[in-house]
Amino acid sequence: MIKEEKQIITLPDGRGITISTGKLAKQAHGSVELRMGNTHMLATVVSSFEAREGVDFLPLTVDYREKFAADGRFPGGFLKREGRPTDQEILVMRLVDRILRPMFPSDYHAEVQIMISLNSHDPNVKPDALAALAASTAIALSDIPFNGPISECRVARIDGSFIINPSSAELEKADIDLMVGASADSVAMVEGEMSEVSEAEMIEAIKIGHEAIKVQCAAQLELAAKAGVSAEKREYCHENHDEDLRNRIKAETYDAVYAVANEGLGKDERSTKFNAVKTDWIESLSENEVEEYDSKLIGIYYHDVEKEAIRNLVLAEGKRLDGRATTDIRPIWCEVDYLYSPHG
User: Shortest CA distance to 28 belongs to which of 158, 89, 117?
Assistant: First the structure.
């Protein structure tokens, strides 16, 4: 007996997006079907339980494919199979990756694969605005650690009215076309194009998109609750830390790092002095401490000190690393006829 759970998201104009789980791709750690109009999309996610040795980043792969069959066709002519991803598919992959990647815990380094397939296409529904919703829902239905859910939506202003996820035909008349990515708490990504609109109008568009995303995030959590998915995420340990070492490095190097950052030096001289602070600190250690401490952790913790000192310098004193104020720009020069044959 197949048990399928569904959740319907209603857009402000009354159109609906249905997300469901329990019927397809049951061996994936999380899977969801998304339907809007005649568009059907399947998103699955799997993740290794352990990180590969030496990996200190998130090996996340997002793959999005629009099958020929989704448009009622199949490849013909010389090539009989699906080819490499199109530019449009790659752009959607990047769009989804950009909002998802920062939402994973920074110390989670297990390989993650997200596969999104467009299986049926409705000309009145643009699938790029739905891919992140499908991907995030699949993760929400899994035990993979994730600081979500998130979603994306397209906001367009047409004849003075804002529309969420408009059709391609409607977009042709839009003077604002924004893709907004966010969690329920905050906006994380905005991209798009506008036709000479004011800052206030752009902010209004972002707010309208965020309100729609809040509804989509709540729907993901409701579907996970319906499906009986445990709120507990898998336990993992992909990094080993030494808090005493972290605190000692900060206490003994922060002031020196801040002083170097505040000198307004050029990049090469500044890097040399930053490295000297680290080298001097390591040389101050006893032989036993050198053997006890992990050199890799020393590098990580010292980098964190640099990051914090530079951030505090900018925020507290309004000063950049090269000495410029936050309101200053670099000197700019222009010259015409510099190349004999620009752009070929």
Answer: 117
* 144-173 confidence digits (pLDDT tens): 999 989 999 999 999 989 999 998 888 888
306 Cβ neighbours under 8 A, 6+ residues apart: 257, 261, 274
Domain boundaries along the sequence of the chain: 5-226, 243-317
How is residue 311 written in tokens?
A: 């951030």
Q: Which CATH class is domain 5-226?
A: alpha beta
| pLDDT tens profile 273-286 | 999 999 999 999 88
Q: Where are the beta strands (DSSP E) in the chain?
A: 5-10, 16-21, 30-36, 39-47, 60-66, 112-120, 150-158, 161-164, 174-183, 187-194
d(CA 107, CA 114): 19
**What fold is seen in the domain 243-317?**
Arc Repressor Mutant, subunit A (1.10.10)
Token readout for 98 is 């950009």
Q: What is the token pair recorded at 12?
A: 């402000």
Number of Cα atoms under 13 Å in the Cβ half of residue 223: 34
Q: Which tokens hold the place of 116? A: 């999104």
Say whether the peptide bond before residue 149 is cis (omega within 30 degrees of 0).
yes
DSSP 266-321: -HHHHHHHHHHHHHHHHHTS-HHHHHHS-HHHHHHHHHHHHHHHHHHHHHHH-B-T
Q: How far apart are CA 156 and CA 179, in angstroms?
A: 9
Cα separation, 160 vs 204, in Å, equals: 12
